[in-house]
Design goal:
The chain has helices spanning 20-30, 70-81, 107-117, 148-160, 214-220, 230-235, 254-262, 265-273; strands at 8-12, 34-40, 57-60, 63-66, 87-94, 122-127, 172-177, 188-190, 199-204, 207-212, 239-244. It has a 9-stranded mixed beta sheet with strand order 3-4-2-1-5-6-7-11-8, sandwiched between helices. A two-stranded antiparallel sheet has the order 9-10. By secondary structure, it is an alpha/beta fold. The chain is globular and about 65 Å long. The protein is built from 8 helices and 11 strands. Pfam families: SurE (PF01975).
């Protein structure tokens, strides 16, 4: 591929521009194209698609550091700082972004969703780091080399997915790599988001602690997720790739049709006044 044919990647994340997972993807994608970093200046994990009205932009050795969220970065990048990007890649996040309930919370995934609304192919990339719901996992995945397997899979998909027609069907890919010694490469599986939901809440005086039990399940391997789901693939040591669409899907619903047809605004107004 000639230099003029090389793709341009807008690279963002939610762990911050200085994170090792971000650098791993930057290095891997730089081998196949031009990479422009438009990433949060600091940690913006789990902010979802939170959007700002105005953000500070600071030039960085890798591109631009933004005092804002991953969604801010996608909009600012595609509209102003990197408008010719052929693909947006978000990651590599420290910690898996798997399960249907996680997708709306994740800043990493939200950057890819934002890009999809611009009509730009996107990938969200995360590394599962075992450690349950405690703090043990914070000490892991602190080196660029820990993300080697995830970065290799990202490069593979970035090189091939568009020409293969993947984005004719999917708006973005949610990629989750398992933890492997030294970032060793492993197999890849096309998956769907798991619907397992195991959030609990425990009251402690004036506080309520919200706990996601799925991480403890994953550490022990005792998960009910069926074959073909993202969590099952990652727990069993495979790279999960879920092809997803950005708009919320709708389905014809006759019961709702009946409610809409029977709706009498005057009767509802009278009932509200009574």
């Amino acid at each position: 591929m000639s230099a003029s044919d090389a793709p341009q990647f807008l690279l963002t994340n939610d762990d911050g521009i200085e994170s090792p997972g971000f650098r791993a993807l930057y290095d891997a994608l730089s081998e196949i194209g031009e990479v422009v970093a438009v990433a949060p200046a600091d940690d913006q994990s789990a902010v979802g698609r939170k959007l700002s009205r105005r953000v500070e932009v600071r030039e960085h050795d890798l591109g631009y550091a933004i005092a804002g969220t991953p969604a801010d970065c996608a909009v600012a990048g595609l509209e102003s700082l990197c408008p010719d990007a052929d693909m947006v890649v978000a990651g590599c996040n420290k910690g898996a972004n798997i399960g249907a309930y996680v997708l709306g919370r994740s800043g990493t995934v939200s950057a890819a969703v934002e890009a999809a609304f611009f009509g730009v192919p996107a990938m969200a990339v995360s590394l599962y780091v075992p450690g349950g719901s405690g703090d043990d996992w914070r000490r892991k995945a602190s080196s660029v080399d820990d993300y080697r397997g995830a970065a290799a899979a990202t490069r593979y998909l970035a090189e091939r997915a568009t020409d293969a027609g993947v984005f004719a069907e999917a708006d973005y890919l949610n990629v989750n790599a398992p933890w492997t010694p030294g970032g060793r490469a492993t197999r890849m599986e096309v998956t769907r988001p798991s619907t397992l939901y195991d959030m609990t809440a425990e009251r402690d005086g004036d506080h309520v602690e919200l706990i996601d039990r799925t991480w403890d399940r994953m550490e022990t391997g005792e998960i009910p997720d069926p074959v073909g789901t993202d969590r099952r693939a990652v727990v069993e040591g495979r790279i999960s790739v879920s092809p997803l669409t950005a708009p919320h899907t709708t389905r014809h619903h006759e019961a709702l049709d009946g409610l809409a047809d029977d709706y009498d605004p005057e009767a509802v107004a009278r009932a509200s006044d009574d």
